[in-house]
Amino acid sequence: MSGPSTYQPQNGFLQWLEKRLPIGGLIHSSFVAYPTPRNLNYWWTFGGILAFMLGVQIITGIVLAMHYTPHVDMAFNSVETIMRDVNYGWLLRYIHANGASMFFLAGYIHIFRGMYYGSYKEPREVLWILGVILYLLMMATGFMGYVLVWGQMSFWAATVITNLFSAIPGVGETIVTWLWGGYAVGNPTLNRFFSLHYLLPFVIAGVVVLHVWALHVVGQNNPTGIEPKSDKDTVPFTPYATVKDSFFMAVFCILFAWFVFYIPNFLGHADNYIPANPAVTPAEIVPEWYYLPFYAILRSIPDKLLGVCALFGSIAILAFLPWLDTSRVRSARYRPLYRQFFWLFVIACLGLGWLGSKPPEGWYVVFSRIFTAYYFGYFLIVLPLLGIFEKTKPLPNSISESVLPAKA
Amino acid sequence: MKTKTILACAAVAALAALAAPAQAEQVPPPALKWSFSGPFGKFDEAQLQRGFKIYREVCSNCHSLNLLSFRNLGEPGGPGFSEAQVAQIASEYKINDLDDSGQPIQRPGRPADHFPAPFPNELAAKAANGGTAPPDMSTLAKARTYSRGFPWFLIDMVTQYQEQGPDYIAAILKGYKDPPPANFKLPPGGHYNEYFPDHNIAMPQPLQDGQVTYDDGSPQTLEQYSKDIAAFLVWAAEPHMVQRKRVGFQVMIFLIVLSGLLYFTKKKVWSAVH
User: Which chain A residues in 63-92 lie under 8 Å from chain B, judged by CB atoms?
Assistant: First the structure.
């Protein structure tokens, strides 16, 4: 069932090619014969969905770039021209804008799934860290894409986010000027953001290749968190995983289409339909929903430099997760205490997300601080200690044992 | 398991407590009925034509509509003017252009021309309007909203309520109060409006009962005007909305059938290992 040697080229040309470039064997061993644990649930389909979303964003993005003008005086109108005068331009643009949200939604589910089932643990540390890098790249790409629209929220989000670097002591202001290419967010800023927004998705695609490569070296984790021991524990990727992923991808597309066709502006901000105006500050500057938890963390800390450190620290800390979690049991299924702290962590993230959309005053700040404290406490206190004190449930002997008795 | 439930309840209660404090000064506008709301919503051609008449006779004195061309008025899913009507409307506008020797001239508009702006530039617009330039109306209906708050923003995702813009615009047009409430100190040059954030709006009340004459027998009331112009502005901001929703329905049917077929395929394939 597994192993690269099972591939037999079907015709003469493929045999000829295989001797010179064994790409058929590579594809076969990676996406056909590759053994996947037989007990994967639907939370495991989001990796495929993410790859699909990356493809959607790149294809729509390339066509949008053919019609877009990266100039401060023309960017907003060129987006509107796409929406009004380019054939199906409204469709491309709404797919791309909502596609970013769907990309992040799938990404968050993928990350939380990894955390719940302990997919970051030995030997999958590098796989996990590559995922954190992908997430960082996605954030940078999404942010720059949002700026390209050059509406009010684009402009002011760019101003606020680039200004974060001014908190760096001594060289902060110099760095911000360097990032802007001037003394304020302006045409050079827009131009470089466009250039990088076009570049980064291909960097993401490259890191995705590494991520998949690392995955195929160590194999997939699964809901039991124990490694496959025999052929009975796995099924070949094709047709089993392929058809399951395809089904759930289609279901995910229903949600995607709901946003694109019926509520395309729901996830956006009304102010971004006002052209950027450096002379008028919006009543409130709010980032896109997928950054809100981090925005809440930033604003929960009264000191600017410490706030920025907390913001970047909240993402950087993810990379250390494999070593912060000291438990030898992977899956939350067999970790009764961990499970509760995990769901509290999810609630804290959602709570921070909601608070990030609220003005930083009164009770909002108090709760932002409580959730921020829990966010860091989860990684720095709860996870290291749990591994020592938690009494875990007995693990099944094998994957097939955990699945098959239930069926009998 | 029990601890988990308790913790979850506590967290939800905490969030609910947060939702309580009223945050914005803005009074939520009443939610009106719109022909274009929902998954099968369509613009009412007669309403868009009336709305256009209001734009032309009233709004366009101060507000530009830069992103629209006359030809848009005749495109499917819009006000439904005939080709001849569009040409006629366009020709009634004066467009700045250059003649063959490069001299500035004014010529009658053509369907491909954009709507001319009322002021030559932003400074002129500011100077003529007490220091604030009237906003361009092309995307206005998408650029205005009000906060729905928790949990409404979640419910709106399912009910597809997204008419905050037209609800707000219609409410603003009807929200003027002269004199303002006794305890409100109106700065000089401002106008009191119930629905405007902070209630102090620069624009004087633009529409009154009977101000615009309708040829189709619709009531010539502020109530009707406010709805008609708001509907027109939604179309101006989203001229392909009808097509979008129609294509959306086709895509939905396709995806649901595809998902169903893939589901049964998956069941068949997996039946061997279960």
Answer: 77, 80-81, 83-84, 90-91
